[in-house]
Amino acid sequence: MYDEEFSEIAKALKASEIRELLKLTQQPEIISFAGGLPNPESFPVNDIKEIASNLLQNEGAKILQYGSTEGVNAFRDTLAKMMDERYNVKGIKRENILITAGSQQALYLLAKIFVNPGDKVVIEAPTYIGILTAFQSYKPDYVEVEMDDDGMDTEILEEKLKELKKEGKKPKLIYVIPTFQNPAGVTMSLERRKHLLELAEEYDTLVVEDNPYGELRYSGESLPSLKSMDRNHYVIHLGTFSKILAPGFRLAWMIAHEEIIKKAVLAKQGIDLCTNTFGQYIANEYISKGYLERHIPEVIALYKRKRDLMLRMMDEYFPDYVKWTKPDGGMFLWVTLPDNMDAEKMFPKAIENKVAYVIGSAFYPKRDHKNTFRLNFTYSSDEQIEEGIKRLAKVIKEFS
Q1: pTM of the prediction?
Q2: CATH architecture classification, 46-292
Q3: Structurally, what CATH architecture does the domain formed by 8-44+296-399 represent?
Q4: CA distances, 325 to each of 148, 198, 277, 332, 340 (Å)
Q5: pLDDT confidence of 251, banded at 50, 70, 90?
Q6: Which helix (H) or strand (E) holds 261?
């Protein structure tokens, strides 16, 4: 009835693959490894209750009011200090920080201020489905770069950048999740991080470093963030409290050169005026009073146990012809079936057996690579992980 009235942008909108799949998994008897949800056990409910109560009692009128689009100044100052002390990102001031309603909004803002139809945007293959959703209205031309266990293959990236330069083109953005990538769970090596930044400078291309999982390391050695290695303002860094505090606050941040922040602020003003002020004050207290530093080890202990359990069950029950990543952190692992198997066609069989995953083709713009799928290990109970992997192994064996 309204088709003729909808704008061209609205007509181009498509539902998120994951959001649609999650509707199928709401039945209580289905064990779902499909979502990207933190475990509710990790939410610091008592700490938040204490902080919120004190804030409401002492500063209620201020913290319940509208805030500036950029974010609460005290919170931005605290984040700048945290980025310096915790991540070794030097020289950050509040003017370099924009508080957003989740990292998803930050991605949408970046699309809005940088991308025109047909512009080249480099992504990992596979990539986070959220960037495909955030960017779809702006119709970019994606340049996909394959990954291995060391993250995006920057040698392939260099070849693709050379080819584009010969054609008189350059990407607007290179989007990466270098640490515990979603969906694959892999981490970009230090050598490739250095190479990526060298290429960014050589080809004068901005890099978007999405870092939602960086604090969630369960094994291996920590690696410096791209932003901490960035000397010439080529990196736009995205961080979030959804995985280390509570996703319900919808609190995240963008760190970039002041000129980029100014333009993103203008774009955000047309969307929501400002991010959740109450949540910002709570997060500011949570960091500055030391709650965050005490809480993260508890989250890591919980998720490490769940990762180890899922990997152990897969080793025991999955057939030898199935391969999967063994992440050092984050929330996901990536499963690769033999070439002749189609995870999308197998999905209904999995639902019949009361277990769910996300099909791998959803993480590629062209929906190819049919023989892959993603599993989340953080949300399910230990019992669900054990039973769910057994069910999934049975499905794979029957379908092959």
Answers
A1: 0.95
A2: 3-Layer(aba) Sandwich (3.40)
A3: Alpha-Beta Complex (3.90)
A4: 10, 28, 39, 9, 20
A5: very high
A6: helix 258-269
